[in-house]
Amino acid sequence: MTSKALNDYLSYYNGTNDWHLQAFRLINNKFSPKRILYPGSWIHMTPSLVFSHVVYVDLFSKMEKIFHDSDLLKYIENHKEYKGKSKIKVHQSDYRAQFGEDKASFDLLISLSSGFVSQPCGSYLKKSGLLFVDNEHYDASMAYVEPKFHLIGVFKTANEYLESQQSIHSFFITTKGDSITLEMVNENSQRSPSKARYKLKKKAIFYVFQKV
Fold first, then answer.
1. Which of 75, 192, 206, 210 fits as disulfide partner to 155, beta carbons 3.0 to 4.6 Å?
2. pTM of the model as a whole
C-alpha cells in the first residue's frame, strides 16, 4: 500500500504523465540548469524527475512531511531521468519572505499559478538565469514589463517551443493592438483572468525569460 503523499501527488499531477514534464525536459536539454527554485510549488514534485537539484518553497503546512515521505522519494528515485542522487530541499515558508537561500544562486526559477513569484524571487536568479512561468496569475505579463527580464521563448504547447523574437513578443499584444504595460498588468491583477480588462490576443502555456 502506497503512502497518502504519493497517492496525492499522483492524483493531482500524474507523475511521469504530468503534462508539464515535456516542457521541463526541453528546458533541461536546451539550457542545462543546475539549481532550480520553485516557490509556490505545493506538492508538485515533478521537476525533480528532470532536474537533480530543486528547492521547493510553500506555506503549505504539510510540506516537510510530504517532501520527506519515503514512498514519494522512492518514486522520484525510480523514475528520475538523470544519473546520481536527487537533491531535494524544502522550505515551509512564504516565498515573499526570507527563506534561507543565497541571492543570485539559482539557474532556473519556476513560477506556476502562484502569484507574482518573479518579483520577490527574481533576486535569487543568477545573471542570465531563466524564469519559467505561466500567465494564470499574470506573472508572465509582470515579467514582460520588468526591465530585469528579457523574453527569450514561448511554449505554445508543452513540446512546441518558439524563439523568434517577432513571434514571441506578439503574445504580449492586447486585443486592442497595444503592447502590455505595467499599468495594465497592475489593473488586471485586481481581477480574475476571465475578467481581465486588458486581454491578450494570443496565449501560450509557458513563457521563458532570461535575467539581464
1. 206
2. 0.96
